[in-house]
Each structure stands twice: as C-alpha cells, then as structure tokens.
Specification:
It contains two helices and no strands. It has one domain. The chain is mainly α. α1 packs antiparallel against α2. The chain is rod-shaped.
C-alpha cells in the first residue's frame, strides 16, 4: 500500500467523521459536500486498489509463463 492510498483512505474516514458531526449539528443540505468528498476519496482509493491488484495478477501471470518457457 502506497502513501497516497493510505492518505486517501484516511481522508475518507476523516471526512465521514466530520460529515456525521456536522450533520448532527446542522442541516444535511449544508454539509452534503463533506460526504461527497468522502465518497470521492473512497472511490479513488478503490480504483487505485483494483489497478494494483490487476497489475499484480498480470505480473504473476507473466512470471509463470517465463518459468514455463525456461524449464523446456
């Protein structure tokens, strides 16, 4: 996990906590943007995680094919 991924996940949790606090304190419509920032951070984190998993699978598949060709 890279620093940017950790920062995105932490920002998402932080925006969620702040958003819940502000909504309990005031109107939902006034603090809607805070929850949207939380969702944006969470979606970007999920996207980056999926890219990382796909890249690892691709590298694993490539290493398996090179091992098979070198054994022959």
């Amino acid at each position: 996990m890279k620093l940017l991924d950790i920062s995105l996940l932490s920002a998402s949790v932080g925006f969620l906590i702040i958003g819940i606090y502000e909504i309990m304190k005031g109107k939902f419509a006034d603090n809607y943007w805070i929850l949207m920032m939380m969702l944006i951070c969470l979606f970007i984190y999920g996207y980056r995680k999926n890219l990382r998993v796909e890249q690892e699978e691709k590298n694993k598949k490539q290493s398996n094919t090179t091992k098979k060709t070198t054994k022959k």
